[in-house]
# Entry
Amino acid sequence: MNATYKYFRDIYLGVTTVSLGMWITFRHFFMPTITVQYPREKLIYPPRARTELRNAIESCNGCLQCARACPVEIIHIETAKAQDEDNAGNMPDGKPRKLLVLTFDVEMSKCVHCGLCVEVCPTESMHWNNEHEHVTFTREELMRHWATYPPEEVRRLQERDEILKAEKAKQAAEAAAKKAAAGDQPAPKPVSKPAADGAEKPAQPSAAAATPAIEKPAKPESGDGTDSPQKENGKEKA
Amino acid sequence: MIALEPYLDLIISVVYVVGIVLFLSLFALFATWLERKVAGHIQDRLGPMETGGWHGWLQPIADAIKLLIKEDIIPAAADKKLFKLAPYLVFIGSLAGFAVLPFAANLIGSDLNIGVYYVIAVTSLVVIGILMAGWASNNKWSMYGAMRSAAQMISYEIPVALSLLIPVMMAGTMSMVEIVDNQAGGFWNWYVFRTMPFSLIAFVIYFWASLAEVNRAPFDLPEAESELVAGYFTEYSGIRWAMFFLAEYGDMFVVSAIAATVFLGGWYAPFPFLDIIPGPIWFIGKTAFLVFVQMWLRWTLPRLRVDQLMYVCWKIFLPFSFANLLLVGLWVVLKG
Ligand code: SF4
Ligand code: SF4
# Structure
């Protein structure tokens, strides 16, 4: 009895489930397809899709945060302090531009699309450009150059920066010497440090190089603040 | 002219055979395209879209050319004679079925008085070719595929034959043309609706068992690509592989055409007033519809296990076919 019941039940289930399955596939037959005919039609990616990097260079302030964040160290930035003669203009937020971004190169071929550079950028100039077709024949073509300065201009500005920095260092040394003469501080260390900086790293972005030496000449740690960007810079050059 | 007279029959036969081979090739080309379209749309895709512009209609031609110019590899350890012979045997088995397909009242290769019997016999020839291919390839996948095909054949042939006997009994003849002629005058005269529900059950059983005959999902065990690479034609490439492919689609056409002939009224229109449309169009249309259903089933159902196939064929199809046969026999006797 039970076996008979099971036999007919199996047949019933077989027939009904096959019909149901056929009904489902029949419905799918008339559903709109989800295929996108790719080279001719393109999907619009969501705004945060990690596609290809782009730096809106006019709003980049050269803070190097992206270069520091990048886990594969493929962002190479060189900056120079902006002078009055440069007419560097304002940043998008209205404040005057302090640094000229001389070179801003990204080796897209090595990018792991982790998005950290986009994440840390304070000015949001680093962003995903929503295009993914960065296919090229050579790896060199995947090198992205976003800075607009021609090479000779880069060299000129770097040299100018170097000279200015050396002057600043000299002034700082004099100020420190004066202070040392006036007071009782062990001045030599902070004095020698910025001087060495000037010699080694001409392209070093100001921020750390000179100012702390003037304001707090007494503290030995002031050197630490300047260290890390310099290290980055050193790596970039290597 | 006078000298030609004795050869007229021969010439007509040759023309007919060439025509059938052409038709079979065209149908296979169309069916591969349709298959991919059906598969695509069932899976919410598009299928081939590029070759030839409109919905990739030239794709099968491109594939055919690709197959023809491919290297023809014969494994070193294969039994070369059998290996070369097998695809032709399979192809001939499928082509021979076309001889008795009545495209119209007078468009038929040969109106044998044992038409149905002949079809059952020659379509079994395919299995010999498959066994030959599997054995000659000297490859375990091929061997498994061939063995499964043989085991499958004994399972499906009996339900197929028993279901085909029902319209034969109702018509009282095995001739394809007479069977169709008995179904003239509207779809309510078709055998599939004549002795409800028995002939309908016979039709369904025939259709399902014929899926096993042409090795299509859910009964595609002999070529089960996820288990056996490609089953019995694993070692074949190029033109020989194309022969198997052609034979498979030819078989699909033959079994569907037989179903259309004996159950669905052959070349007759569903309504008498539609008979102005020529018979071959109805016949090919009905067949193409059944081929479409075969594809539809293939992209709906997963493959059965071997034991499930045996269960379905021996324990479900067979008893039902027998019961059907008895009841329809009774009906014929009482009516006659
Ligand atoms: S997204 Fe690319 S460039 Fe940006 S931090 Fe990650 S690896 Fe570096
Ligand atoms: S973090 Fe943004 S602003 Fe800073 S250097 Fe990189 S891109 Fe420019």
Notes: The pocket of iron/sulfur cluster (ligand 2) is lined by residues A 55, 60-66, 77, 120-123, 125-126 (CB under 6 Å). Residues 1-69 of chain B form one domain. Chain B has a mean pLDDT of 83.
